[in-house]
Specification:
It is a single chain. This protein has 447 residues and is mainly beta. The chain has one domain: Methylamine Dehydrogenase, Chain H (7 Propeller). The chain has helices at 103-110, 186-189, 386-392, 394-399; strands at residues 5-11, 22-27, 38-43, 55-56, 72-76, 83-87, 96-101, 113-120, 126-132, 142-145, 152-155, 169-172, 177-180, 206-211, 216-222, 229-234, 242-247, 252-258, 264-271, 275-278, 284-285, 289-294, 300-305, 310-315, 323-329, 341-344, 356-357, 360-361, 369-371, 377-381, 402-408, 415-417, 423-424, 434-440. The strands form nine sheets. Strands 29, 30, 31, 32 and 33 form a five-stranded antiparallel sheet that branches. The chain has a four-stranded antiparallel sheet with strand order 3-2-1-34, with no helix packed on it. The chain starts with a strand and ends in a 7-residue tail after the last strand. The protein contains four helices and 34 strands. The longest helix has 8 residues, at 103-110.
Length: 447
């Protein structure tokens, strides 16, 4: 079915507005008089959680054909390490909070903090990745919630096998594998991006391969110093033992796949070159690929490039050689007339123009993506992480972020901004806020 409602995580952290984060319900039905508007807001009971990612308590598994009931949405706080369970099944347009797990429980029971990405496991439990320990030091791994009661069970992996950092993950039950990315050290990233942190172990470099059943670490791949692997996705085909990971700071995308020896292998398949610039924090601006998403038919891969400002579409008929077939700029740091001048660019002949939709100038760069089930509509928000938002896009923090719709050519490839759709989070009743993760009540391409 076509998506009619989206749930979007919104934060007020770093905006100088003393209001709690909230879950926004956005009307996506073109026939509705409220199309493109926030029709409901569910405020959290606390301040400065930094709602970042979200995930369903039940997802599609590879073992049966029963339709999952997406009636609970899990919202972890990236900064607070608090976990909210939201009931979206009783009234899909008016979600309500039904459970809360306090950070002290996460700290004491799991010695974990800075919670990131949520996926439901094949056995029905809920798995949440983390970036650090309670003090903000780097520490990867996962915590587990009971899939029915949502009580905190404890750590997923063995204590001795926790990686140095963590962020995203994805699993493939038919091959008994879970693959996770590295992320970065929270207490250093919390001060903003500092070029002096390069080559000091602040930005992760590992891709981790886990035995899903035994919960043990079986392989680690070094993707390069300060490569910062973030987004991990398997192909949707449950018989396909391959996927991709995007590295934010190196501009590389690696394909990982299972070889005949029952081991996993990685190979670089995409490289986005940096741009030589003046007026920026460094002389070279790397591609900062925040999100990677794959269409449900496994035909296309999409990347959001937060610093450069473009969304890219790659065709996957040859999974080892993704082919760029679509590109559109929706903001970024290299816009014409801005403070940054591009001196040398291997891809563009001129700097892109600013984007204006419905008389609203769009600031910031493309961050989180979500794709409709038919693959024809790609939705994007432009907040990455509030501290870095404030550093790189202070005007966006002041005026609020947006949610855009990109129309997708699913036949030949191609991307185009839909000028009739704009969710302006700068017009919220409590003031401008920062919008991040997107989920559809009818199902989405990342669950």
């Amino acid at each position: 079915p076509r998506e009619e409602v989206a749930y979007v995580t919104c934060t007020y952290r770093e905006t100088c507005i003393d209001q709690p984060d909230f879950l926004a319900t956005v009307d996506l039905n073109p026939r509705s008089p409220y199309y493109g508007q926030v029709v409901h807001r569910l405020p959290m009971p606390n301040l400065k959680d930094e709602l970042h990612s979200s995930g369903w308590s039940t997802g599609c598994t590879c073992f049966d054909n029963t339709a999952p009931k997406r009636n609970k949405l899990i919202l972890p706080g990236l900064i607070s390490s608090r976990i909210y369970v939201v009931d979206v099944g009783s009234q899909c347009r008016a979600p309500k909070l039904c459970k809360m797990i306090e950070p002290v429980d996460v700290f004491w029971k799991c010695n974990k903090g800075y919670l990131c990405v949520v996926h439901s496991l094949p056995n029905g439990d809920v798995l949440i990745s983390n970036m650090g320990d309670p003090a903000g030091n780097g520490k990867g791994g996962f915590i587990v919630l009971d899939g029915e009661t949502f009580n905190l069970k404890g750590n997923w992996e063995n204590e001795c096998e926790a990686p140095p950092t963590g962020y995203d993950f994805w699993y493939q039950p038919r091959f008994n594998v879970l693959i996770s990315s590295a992320g970065l050290v929270p207490k250093r990233a919390g001060w903003g991006f500092n070029p002096d942190d390069l080559k000091k172990g602040v930005f992760g470099r590992r891709l981790n391969v886990w035995n899903l059943a035994c919960r043990t670490l079986t392989q680690c791949f070094d993707l390069g110093e300060d490569s910062l692997p973030l987004s991990v996705k398997f192909l949707h085909n449950p018989d396909a033992a391959e996927g991709y990971v995007s590295c934010a700071l190196s501009g590389n995308v690696f394909r990982f796949y299972k070889c005949e020896a029952n081991n996993w292998v990685v190979e670089e398949v995409i490289h986005i070159p940096p741009k030589e610039v003046t007026g920026w924090i460094m002389p070279k601006m790397p591609a900062f690929t925040v999100d990677l998403i794959i269409s449900r038919d496994d035909r296309y891969l999409y990347l959001s490039n937060w610093w450069h400002g473009d969304i890219r579409q790659y065709e996957l008929s040859k999974t080892c050689k993704p082919r760029l077939v679509g590109q559109v700029f929706v903001g970024g740091s290299i816009l014409r007339g801005g403070p940054v001048t591009v001196c040398r660019d291997e891809e563009l002949k001129c700097q892109p123009d600013p984007l204006v939709i419905k008389c609203r100038r769009v600031y910031g760069g493309p961050s989180k993506l979500q794709l409709s089930l038919d693959g024809k509509r790609l939705y994007v928000t432009n907040s990455f992480y509030s501290t870095w938002d404030k550093q790189f896009y202070p005007t966006m923090v002041k005026e609020g972020s947006v949610m855009l719709q990109i129309d997708v050519d699913t036949e030949k490839g191609g991307l185009c901004v839909n000028k009739n759709f704009l969710v302006d989070f700068g017009k919220e009743p409590n003031g401008p806020c920062l919008a991040h993760d997107i989920r559809f009540a009818s199902g989405d391409s990342t669950s």
